[in-house]
Amino acid sequence: MQYGVPPCYDRNAQMRVQPSIIAPPQPQPEPRPRVLIVDDDPQMLRVYERILRAAGFALERAADGRAAAEAVRRGHFDVIVSDIDMPGLDGIGLLRAVREHDLDLPVVLVTASPAVETAVQALEWGALRYLIKPVAAAELTKVTRHAAQLRRMAALKREAINLVAGERFKVGDRVGLEMVFARALDALWMAYQPIVANSRRSTFALEALVRSGEPEMSGPAALFDAAERLDRIADVGRRIRAKVAGTAAEMPDTTFFVNLHPRDLLDEELYAPQAPLSAVARQCVLEITERASLDNVGDVRDRVAALRQLGYRICIDDLGAGYAGLSSFAQLEPEVVKLDMSLVRDIHLQPTKRTLVRSMVSLCADLGLLLVVEGVEIVAERDTLAEIGCELMQGYLFARPAHPPPTISWK
After folding, report:
1. pTM above 0.70, yes or no
2. Which CATH architecture has domain 174-394?
């Protein structure tokens, strides 16, 4: 059978065009899967090597867990087959070390002394299989080949997610999630973006924005997605508040806007007078987004009253992009509101947006509320907002979030 384009005609010359013959693409052979075999018994290493090399795998050997962990840090493997009972770093310890370095690498653990405790630990840390010695050659080959296929699938899934999912978290299993989340929490830091008083060319406040040095969760969306899945919102909130408290103590004349997740309102540490942020509460405005429901916080009014008693002010964030109605206003009774950036984008080109924002400016003035517009990116947006009465602004036009707080650009 010949492969090629179907016959077609040149419409201008009215002559039949002969198709060119196009050979089908030849599939490229996949590289041989690389397997690291680990055992402190040299005879077992030779047995595994003979079986798996005959099955077509590329092999590397390690005589103990520490040597194997170093090999994983040094090179790429598709599968690890490891004994559990080894001196020094045993198979469970190796599995933990692997998970700190590689979330997707399949690990097959083998033991001559099966125990419920080690089996449970193996599953908790994401071992693919738990085999009992002696392992038949056919079973070892089958399990190793399946593990290599899963490794390939994991790589393709991660590539696909990187292509289409943006910042959303990319680790699916709970073990991997917990490992990366712990690293992200340890590497958490705060960036600060100025809120400016436009006409006075001065800084009104700084908004604290969470970041992490962990590449898998560098931004807030991935971090909070993982925290929600692990029920660890309180841990993130506490770490954020402690970081901001340290900065605020060094800048006693500066106001800080601090974002709260709705579940933070259920954390009793938030209301403790001895909590780090409580010491600087009078410098802080707590932002609560309109994008999330407060329905699961049953006593919102009492909790907000307790926060005000400590000295905090309350801000409703993302106004105009969240829930409609009066619920959030009635429950929170904010001193500050922030208009969502969707109302700001291209406001100089859209009369409907200008009319709406002008009305909000007027209403906030009547209610005695401070109004902040965020997402200001170009001069035309700034000038239009200033013309309709917006004084407090935030956005890339003035400064991007940074640590330490950036210098404002006035254009």
Report:
1. no
2. Alpha-Beta Barrel (3.20)
